[in-house]
Specification:
The structure is a single chain. The chain is 8% helix and 34% strand. The strands form 2 sheets. A 5-stranded antiparallel sheet has the order 2-3-8-5-6, with no helix packed on it. It contains 2 helices and 8 strands, in the order H-H-E-E-E-E-E-E-E-E. The protein is globular. It is mainly beta and 154 residues long.
């Protein structure tokens, strides 16, 4: 079986692991922030989000191109054991948002607010898959438009 090396971390906390944010510490430990230098024209603002999700208990587990068509798939997971109201905020205008199953088969159409925000209700510990149909289709890999996006979530 060979030699094995294990790493672990201990995080002291009070209250529940969810209230104390232990999952954030674990995420930072297992997936540390990595930086790379790239060349470009420098047109991006100092901070910018491709996708924002609120509240923090709603985690993004995947973002990928849809298997069929020009859309993006976003998979979300509610780590809380209670239902939460959340919001997905995309960086470009959305033509439509649709809830799908894991096979990307379409289900309920979702409301799109202000062209970029999708309010969500997610049951405790539920995994949700959302199909985002972007106005004008999915952009080429190296293009980016920069609309102003507020933090409004109904």
């Amino acid at each position: 079986l060979g030699q094995h090396i294990f790493e672990y971390a201990l995080v002291p906390y009070q209250g529940s692991w969810l209230q104390a944010g232990v999952w954030e510490e674990a995420d930072g430990y297992t997936r540390p922030l990595r930086c790379i230098r790239i060349t470009g024209r420098g047109e991006l603002p100092p901070t910018y989000s491709f996708l924002k999700v609120q509240p923090k208990e709603l985690l993004v587990s995947a973002v990928k191109k849809a298997e069929d068509g020009e859309a993006l798939i976003v998979r979300l997971w509610n780590i809380a054991d209670r239902e939460i109201k959340g919001c997905l905020i995309f960086h470009r205008r959305l033509a439509e948002a649709v809830e799908t199953n894991l096979n990307e088969e379409e289900g309920e159409k979702l409301e799109v607010v202000n062209g970029m925000q999708v309010p969500l209700r997610v049951r405790g510990c539920e995994l949700k898959t959302i199909k985002l149909i972007v106005v004008g289709g999915v952009p080429p890999q190296n293009s980016l438009s920069l609309p102003r996006v507020g933090s409004y979530c109904p």
